[in-house]
Amino acid sequence: MGNSYFTENTRVQVPAALHLCKLGYTYLDNINAYDTKTNILIDVFLNAVKHKRMYEYKTTLKAQFEESHRLEKEILAQLRSMSFNNIDKE
């Protein structure tokens, strides 16, 4: 009756982990830094914060570039619409 080949690991945990990996989750088998007070994996948390900051930096940089490009177009349009023939000569 007590077959050691079939345990909770073989029947439940491993198939569940494999299924979650197929769905796109990451299996963390080697947990180095773990905060017992907050239940936070420190390495995973720091990588997520770093990724978010990099995304925000890229988004801000892109917005600044687009704004400068828009202003450049606006200035060029104003210069084109000006009539340089009407400028008073000294």
- For the terminal residues, how far apart are their CA atoms? 110 Å
Task: Classify the secondary structure makeup into a structural class.
Answer: mainly alpha
Largest sheet: 2 strands, antiparallel
Overall pLDDT, averaged? Answer: 81
Could you tell me the strand content as a percent range?
A: under 5%
- Radius of gyration over alpha carbons? 30 Å
Low-confidence residue ranges: none
Share of helix among residues?
Answer: 55-70%
Strand order of the largest sheet: 1-2
Which word captures the global form? elongated
Order of helices and strands: HEEH
Q: Helical region count?
A: 2
User: How many runs of DSSP E, i.e. beta strands?
Assistant: 2
Please specify the SSE layout and strand pairing:
Layout lengths: L7 H15 L11 E2 L4 E2 H40 L9
Antiparallel strand pairs: 1-2
Would you give an account of this structure?
- The chain has two helices and two strands.
- It starts with 7 loop residues before the first helix and ends in a 9-residue tail after the last helix.
- The radius of gyration is 30 Å and the shape is elongated.
- A hairpin with a 4-residue loop joins strand 1 and strand 2.
- A two-stranded antiparallel sheet has the order 1-2.
- The protein has 90 residues and is mainly α.
- It has helices spanning 8-22, 42-81, and strands at residues 34-35, 40-41.
- The mean pLDDT is 81.
